[in-house]
């Protein structure tokens, strides 16, 4: 009898717990908190993306940082964070992020190009040139990389190498919009062959005229003697 009473009491207690609204609302659902936090981080990421599109990089930075709390978004948000730093001309923080990502993925051409770009924008043309040279050799069909390499070579005043790379560039990408600007710049350093020939011819004519004048003077001096 006592055993039956205990069983009935225990059953009644369980029924009371699982039918009580107050008790049910206090029971945590396994994984619910993690899902909620993940959804919040996804919202942060979406907000950051909107700010980035609006070029409000300081706000985008704030929300990308918060989005990184979700492990599934961390790498992507970290990359985007670096991009926002660079677009805001905060090259120091941008370089820290891109170098960290590159250490994890050393063969990533996009990350290499980003690091080279930052070096170029901060005036470290030597480091930028080394990276772009490697990238240009590895990616001969990438017009953007080739153009950036030429720009860095010109900034370094390595015009001879810039001309070599440019000649290949205009053959490979004949419709690229950068060709005219590169051609104008390099022509100011290395005049076209026709202009050089015309200049040489003019000098020869001047030398010839000068020789005739000198000969006439010598003849006049001889006659007077």
How would you describe this protein?
This protein is mainly α and 225 residues long. 81% of the residues lie in helices and 0% in strands. It is built from 12 helices and no strands. It has helices at 2-19, 21-26, 32-53, 57-67, 74-87, 91-104, 109-121, 125-138, 143-155, 159-172, 179-189, 193-224. Helix 5 (74-87) packs antiparallel against helix 6, helix 6 runs antiparallel to helix 7 and helix 9 (143-155) packs antiparallel against helix 10. Residues 3-20 have low confidence and may be disordered.
Helix content: over 70%
What average pLDDT do the residues reach? 81
What is the global morphology? elongated
* Tally of contiguous helical segments: 12
| Count of strand segments | 0
For the record, give the distance between the C-alpha atoms at the N and C termini, rounded to a whole number.
Answer: 160 Å
Order of SSEs: HHHHHHHHHHHH
Q: Which stretches are poorly predicted, pLDDT < 50 over at least 5 residues? A: 3-20
SSE layout:
Elements (H helix, E strand, L loop, with lengths): L1 H18 L1 H6 L5 H22 L3 H11 L6 H14 L3 H14 L4 H13 L3 H14 L4 H13 L3 H14 L6 H11 L3 H32 L1
Helix pairs in contact: 3-4, 4-5, 5-6, 6-7, 7-8, 8-9, 9-10, 10-11
Task: Write a brief caption for the model.
With 225 residues, the protein is mostly helical. The chain is 81% helix and 0% strand. It is elongated and about 75 Å long.
Q: What features would you highlight for this structure?
A:
single chain; 225 residues; mainly alpha; 0% strand; elongated; disordered N terminus
């Amino acid at each position: 009898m006592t055993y039956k009473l205990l069983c009935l009491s225990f059953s009644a207690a369980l029924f009371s717990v699982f039918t009580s609204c107050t008790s049910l609302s206090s029971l945590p659902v396994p994984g619910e908190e993690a899902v909620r936090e993940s959804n919040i981080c996804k919202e942060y990421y979406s907000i950051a993306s909107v700010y980035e599109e609006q070029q409000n990089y300081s706000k985008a930075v704030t929300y990308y940082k918060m989005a990184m709390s979700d492990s599934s978004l961390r790498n992507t948000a970290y990359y985007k964070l670096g991009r926002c730093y660079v677009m805001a001309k905060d090259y120091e923080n941008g370089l820290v992020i891109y170098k960290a990502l590159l250490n994890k993925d050393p063969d990533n051409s996009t990350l290499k190009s980003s690091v080279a770009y930052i070096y170029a924008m901060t005036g470290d043309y030597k480091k930028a040139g080394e990276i772009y040279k490697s990238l240009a050799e590895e990616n001969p069909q990438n017009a953007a990389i080739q153009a950036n390499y030429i720009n860095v070579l010109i900034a370094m005043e390595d015009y001879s190498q810039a001309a070599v790379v440019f000649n290949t560039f205009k053959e490979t990408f004949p419709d690229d919009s950068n060709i005219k600007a590169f051609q104008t710049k390099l022509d100011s350093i290395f005049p076209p062959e026709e202009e050089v020939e015309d200049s040489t011819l003019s000098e020869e004519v001047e030398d010839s005229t000068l020789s005739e004048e000198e000969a006439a003077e010598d003849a006049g001096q001889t006659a007077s003697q």
